[in-house]
Amino acid sequence: MEVNPIAEAPSVATVGTAKPAGTEKADFGSVLKEELNKVNDMQIKADEASRQLVTGEAKDIHSVLLAAEEARLALEVTVQIRNKLIESYQEINRMQL
What whole-number distance in Å separates Cα of residue 70 and Cα of residue 18? Predict the structure, then answer.
């Protein structure tokens, strides 16, 4: 059995250093707002899927349940991130200078 060589693998130093086009100066606030908007969109899609299920427009219950679970998990992660941010802020405020 012949084994073909793997194409040249990226070095450890270059992994994760590529920046997406157009995001040279993304500040924390704009990134946070963008991600919160994504979570909100997931919630809206889940609500719309539930409405379609109730009205009989949706034929596949699996897609409705999947959308609802994705929205629930996204919200849960968002709340946990918020809790960690608040905890970090409070810890910084307790530091003595």
Answer: 28
Tokens describing residue 72: 């629930």
pTM: 0.66
Q: Are 77 and 43 in contact (CB under 8 A)?
A: no
- Report the amino acid identity of residue 77: V
Taking alpha carbons only, the member of 39, 33, 32, 36 closest to residue 71 is: 39
How many CB atoms are located within 10 Å of the residue 79 CB? 11
What is the distance between the alpha carbons of residues 23 and 35, in angstroms, rounded to a whole number? 14
Is residue 54 predicted with pLDDT exceeding 50?
yes
- DSSP for 27-73 reads -HHHHHHHHHHHHHHHHHHHHHHHHHHHHT----HHHHHHHHHHHHH
